[in-house]
Amino acid sequence: MPLEFELCPGRMVGGAHPCFIIAEIGQNHQGDVEMAKKMIKMAKDCGADCAKFQKSELEHKFNKLALERPYNSKHSWGKTYGDHKRHLEFSHQQYRELQKYAEEVGIFFTASGMDEMAVEFLHELNVPFFKVASCDANNFPYLTAIAKKGRPLVVSSGMQSMETMRRVYNTVKEHNPNFCILQCTSAYPLDPENVNLRVISEFQKEFPDIPVGYSGHERGLYITLAAVGMGAKVVERHVTMDKSLKGNDHEASLEPKELAELVRAIRMVEAAFGSNIKQMIPCEKACQDKLGKSVVARVHVPSGAVLTLDMLVVKVAEPRGVPPEDIFQLVGKKVLEELEEDQSITPDLVDGYGKRAKC
């Protein structure tokens, strides 16, 4: 069984525990704290386990030229990329306000620390776990530092190779056993042919002692459900109040009705996993009583006759008799009483057949 660990207080992931569903608000809040609160409440109302943001200390994430470059996109909130990002970035005090609100609402709260200084702040904020964004999965000094903090980690794998992810696994594992890796493709929105869900199976083979999950940027719900069916123990989807809002991520995000349906569908799929033991179960009894078949006499059979296969046929019969799977066990055995054509053959009518009819 895959490793299981406590990702948030009282909430285990891995093994047979329910899939942990992260509603990635990211920066879809438009830089508005009240909008962010509405999205936290929406995530809770839809049944998600966690509302997640993205925290950056911009001067530590970007160099000066990157912040000064012109940003003329229709999604821009400023003339330069720095101005754009500053509009979307919440202050430390605003993060504390959002964390408090999430606690009041009753949903776990965390963020991706997009640079080491942001991680330091989130550590001070006492978030339950750190999310490592795909852009930092190959940032090994960062990974080492964040793993040493001792908090559980969720690591996305977009833009990385399997060789890099092996290094990620080994780097984190050296300092922290409580982490999972998510299959992810970094494109917004993501076309189905680029999702590569089969990587989930490869991760499960490569890293059998940690949970594996999925971070999706595709449209719709089906692919994420398929990931859960393949064993994803953590799933992350971007969420929005309205796909038409300004911002690169909205188009690849789920609106409230979609998020609620995804949560319901995931829980339904989990219920459907059921048992790995194949057997007739109680809910099938009505069908078995109505349509279950038995062995009957194809022809008249005298008392004391030795049964041959051509004397037998399988039908829905009253009363219930020998089950069809035992028909060959009857061949070569004597009947103890005369059998009429089309009569059910019950166990007590055959010498040496002691198996009771199934019910």
Can you give a write-up of this model?
- This protein has helices at 33-46, 58-61, 64-68, 81-88, 92-105, 116-125, 140-147, 162-175, 198-206, 222-229, 256-273, 285-291, 327-330, and strands at 5-8, 11-13, 20-26, 50-55, 108-113, 130-132, 153-156, 179-184, 212-216, 234-238, 293-297, 312-316.
- By secondary structure, the chain is of the alpha/beta class.
- The strands form three sheets. It has an eight-stranded parallel beta sheet.
- α9 (198-206) links the parallel β8 and β9.
- α1 packs parallel to α5 (92-105), α7 runs parallel beside α8 (162-175) and α10 (222-229) packs parallel to α11.
- The radius of gyration is 30 Å and the shape is elongated.
- The chain starts with a strand and ends in a 29-residue tail after the last helix.
Task: List the topology elements.
Blueprint: E1 5-8, E2 11-13, E3 20-26, H1 33-46, E4 50-55, H2 58-61, H3 64-68, H4 81-88, H5 92-105, E5 108-113, H6 116-125, E6 130-132, H7 140-147, E7 153-156, H8 162-175, E8 179-184, H9 198-206, E9 212-216, H10 222-229, E10 234-238, H11 256-273, H12 285-291, E11 293-297, E12 312-316, H13 327-330
Parallel strand pairs: 3-4, 3-10, 4-5, 6-7, 7-8, 8-9, 9-10
Antiparallel strand pairs: 1-2, 11-12
Helix pairs in contact: 1-5, 1-11, 7-8, 10-11
Question: Could you provide a short overview of the structure?
Answer:
By secondary structure, the chain is of the alpha/beta class. Helix content is 34%, strand content 16%.
Principal-axis shape: elongated
Q: Unreliable segments (pLDDT under 50, ≥5 consecutive)?
A: none
What's the pLDDT, averaged over the residues?
96
Strand proportion, as a percent range, falls in 15-25%
Main sheet makeup? 8 strands, parallel
Topology order in helix (H) and strand (E) letters: EEEHEHHHHEHEHEHEHEHEHHEEH
Measured on Cα atoms, how large is the radius of gyration? Answer: 30 Å
